[in-house]
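Data availability (excerpt). The following record was deposited with the supplementary files.
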Amino acid sequence: MTSLEYPAQPRIIQSPGCISQLGSLAAEWDLKRALVISDPGIVQAGHARTGCDSLAQVGIETTVFSELGENPSTQDIERGVTLAEDFQPQLLVGLGGGSSMDCAKGINFIYTNGGQMQDYWGVGKATKEMLPMIAIPTTAGTGSETQSFALISDAQTHRKMACGDKKAICRIALLDPDLTTTQPPLVTALTGIDAMAHALETYVTTRRSDRSLPFSRESWRLLASSFADVVKDGSCLEARSRMQLGACLAGIAIENSMLGATHALSNPLTTEYDIVHGQAIAIMLPHVIRFNAEQCGDQYSELLATTHDLDDRLPTGDYQHLAQFIEQLADQAGLPMKLSSCGVQEERLGELAEQAGQQWTAQFNPRKVTVNDLKELYQAAL
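Predicted structure:
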């Protein structure tokens, strides 16, 4: 593995079973109550109970908030804040996928700083300190555990709000690959494709820098060499570990680089058609790679060259090989690769393109995108 200089936060701990360290780590802060934010599936799988038991062993009282959807909304945050105001936690634990970790950050914003979620749309809007947080991802996807942003949907307008503040970054990220083995194969594929998109987009955005590039590069090496294995055999803990670390490093890359048109195009598909985020990413990513190649084709080739020594299944060459590789992985995972297969109607492409053009990440795409460009990308994917 490439030598990397990690930021001061979060402290990253990875090992099978490391969720059992949650209590001893939290005890270092001399606190008595922790609110665990998780989703119903993770609660049902027993992972929330494992985390709570670890906290209880060191005398920390817990309660669990799990009333959140796949894409946390302002209503979810309001319910969580109501519970927090009654319980008065001193620590928040985000245990689950990106929705759980983003929800924990959203609750933290309002519980500590007041107001409503819309007040924190943007960067650096929190004026008061926030509670310490520990993130425990159960997927290898969003990289939210290493980001200071929470993506929260406005329950009224359905627009996704990126709410970021350095105060919102987690103190510790516990990467326990055992927790990812309970994922259904489809979830493994969808979150894995999203993580690969993070590595690829952060490598070419207009905000890429010497600080972000090593994380994008190492993330891609880990993810590209492991995705097929983990989809084929979900019990392979080594592949699970590599995917989980790759997603985590991509989160650090996002924090220092931002994302691009793939995510701008994907968000309206989730909002308007309820297409799962990873599925939208899988459809749009190859088309964006081909579109961007006019501006950054050499960068894609450069990235592919970093993986030629890992596995002869991995692509070498130019952007076309990269786009084809993503399509092949999605096909192996059984993911639809046309928007029409997901119910998208041609007559709505213009409306979707208008929404995509308003997404924050569109401005960081390496090749400037107009609303007409975005519509053409949707058309190509239809």
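Summary of structural features: The chain has a mean pLDDT of 94.
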